[in-house]
Amino acid sequence: MTLKYVNEILTFDNIDIQELGHTIETPYYLYSENIINRNVDEYINELKNIDSLICYSVKANSNLSILSLFAKKGLGFDIVSGGELQRVIKAGGDMSKIVFSGVGKTDEEIEFALKNNIYCFNVESQGELDRIETIATSLNVKANISLRVNPEIDAKTHPYITTGLSENKFGISQTDILNTFKMISNSKSLNICGIDYHIGSQIVDLEPFTDSAKRVLSIINELKREHISLSHVDLGGGLGISYNDELPVKRGDYVRSVVEVFKEANLKIIFEPGRSIIGDAGILVTKVIEKKNNKYGKNFIIVDAGMNDLIRPPLYNAFHKISSVVKNIAPTDSFDVVGPVCETADFFGKDRRLSANIGDLIVIEDTGAYGFVLSSNYNSRPRVAEYLVSKNNVACIRGREIFSDIIGDEEDYLE
Ligand SMILES: Cc1ncc(COP(=O)(O)O)c(C=O)c1O
User: What is the pTM of this model?
Assistant: First the structure.
């Protein structure tokens, strides 16, 4: 796999991380183009004879160099903001392959997207639909519309990343969806092109995917009976990866199973994968800056990365494997691996068997998705750098922030 010990030193996509420590300052994210390609190609190969479009979900990792890799491979993009659209434009993405998701698109974002001729809006409410219609009319264009239905399926994932339940803010309920489609079928400025849904993230079982697909298929059939025809069905993202010992359904099996459900609908199928493409293609490299123990027998390894750099453990109680770069011969003690941020929630792992000394490098694994993108300047800490391993070369794809990046224009407002 991507990470392996060679002569007791951890390598990532054949790059010696210890050696890299001589030139790159920690903490930093490191991604592998090989792994990204492997993951994307599994989707592409499975879909090559199917009328389909893969729209990489930009929110998972929006670095321009990463987006540019996907653009070159012909992928489309799933965006949720004007900022993400600007990123895709800069990365050379094809505007005719962009779907715009999200519950709260502003008028400015809608106008910007219409002016850039994106493929379609994944609409989440009647109010949003009305606003898109008004803006499209004023621009004298027709907006392609897909309606997001809430399939009310329990994705059996963390409550913060489940999106297809009736209590979630996402989508239009199944009872209203037919009428909403009917209402827009006469609009001069709106063009119905599809139906979409997304039930959550880090889903490892096949069942929620096939159950929700069957529900949406029955809505598509109902629409057909009402003579409302669609061009596509967009089933969102959500496929999980193995962070610990989960055995997620394989990309190929997942794709084949949902394609099979929708076969009779004869529509283009859109996928919006994020984590399953980029999650295991990244690591966070950090250094031990301190060690301590308390009188209750708790041991701590304090590293130079913090929850502002990777917030998944405190936010979702997410598990990430943690490895020392120099192989532990026989770690005897358990440590909480924590950062320097002044929050008890600032941890990467609890009770991990590790042996590492001050100055040693440590890797937090599977941090390619929802890692850097969720980072912040909390505690006035600069965002870390990002690097990409490409053809056995390590290149910087975003430099570490400096203090002036953190304070922005605050000084201009000093009295
Ligand atoms: C609408 C939509 N599509 C796609 C994704 C990507 O999901 P994942 O990274 O789990 O594949 C998300 C993430 O939450 C989403 O909300």
Answer: 0.96
Q: CATH number for the 3-31+279-410 domain, one of 3.30.360.10, 3.30.460.10, 2.40.37.10, 3.90.1100.10? A: 2.40.37.10
Report in angstroms the alpha-carbon separations of 9 from 14, 177, 329: 11, 56, 11
- Residue 333's pLDDT is what? 85
Catalytic residue annotation: 342
Mean pLDDT of 152-175: 71
Q: In angstroms, what is the span from residue 200 Cα to ligand 1's centroid?
A: 7
DSSP string of 83-124, one letter each residue: HHHHHHHHTT--GGGEEE--S---HHHHHHHHHTT-SEEEE-
Q: In this structure, which residue's CA is closest to atom 14 in ligand 1?
A: 201
Beta carbon of 198 within 6 Å of any ligand 1 atom? yes
The pLDDT value recorded for residue 166 is 61
The fold for domain 62-273 equals TIM Barrel (3.20.20)
Q: What is the mean pLDDT of the chain?
A: 95
- What confidence category does residue 70 fall into, taking pLDDT thresholds of 50, 70 and 90? very high
Domain ranges of the chain: 3-31+279-410, 62-273
Query: Ligand 1 centroid vs 145 CA: distance in angstroms?
Result: 19
Decide if pLDDT at 160 tops 80.
Answer: no
Residue 148 phi, psi (nearest 5): -85, 120
Judge whether 46 and 38 are in contact, CB under 8 Å.
Answer: no
The verdict on the CB of residue 238 being under 6 Å from ligand 1 is yes
Does the pLDDT value for residue 119 go beyond 60?
yes
